[in-house]
Amino acid sequence: RHATEDNIDRIKYALKDLNGTAPSRSRIWKSTRGWNTSKKSQTFRWKAIHEAHATGDFFTRMESLSHLAVCPECGVTESMEHVLLECTVGTHEVVWAKARELWE
Fold first, then answer.
1. Which residues pair with 77 in a beta bridge?
2. Which end of the chain is more exposed for a tag (fewer CB within 10 A), N or C?
3. Nearest Cα to 10, choosing from 44, 40, 47, 48?
4. What is the dihedral of CA 37, 47, 78, 102, to 10 degrees?
């Protein structure tokens, strides 16, 4: 999938900016299955890379749930990028605090 390849590239170059070196694509994929984390955490990472979480456009296809497609705070179409990085509601702060716990 095109989106998956784009996301792998984004991960690769973000890590290069942080660490000075870019990991290989295979290293990135291997990291989604490791880290001594739960199956839920591994599944979350896999879905994030593949844009497989039920957000935004997923809900627009269902009339009864279409109201879930848009962030109630920001008014933009929901995406994992919005939830994790952009939304002003503050829930992303909780997610990143939990992520820091995994790294420490």
1. 70
2. C
3. 48
4. 10
Q: Name the band, by pLDDT with cuts 50, 70 and 90, for residue 104.
A: low
| Model confidence at 92: pLDDT above 80 | no
Closest of 73, 93, 83, 13 to residue 48, by C-alpha: 83
pLDDT in tens, 21-79: 899 998 888 887 766 778 888 888 888 889 898 999 899 989 999 999 999 889 999 98
Q: What are phi and psi of 70, to 5 degrees?
A: -115, 135
pLDDT in tens, 38-52: 888 888 888 888 989
End-to-end CA gap in the chain: 33
Please compute, for residue 94, the number of CA atoms within 13 A of its CA located in the half-sphere on the CB side: 6
- In order of 18, 20, 26, 34, the CA distances from 83 in angstroms are 22, 27, 27, 24
Say how far apart CA 58 and CA 50 lie, in whole Å: 13
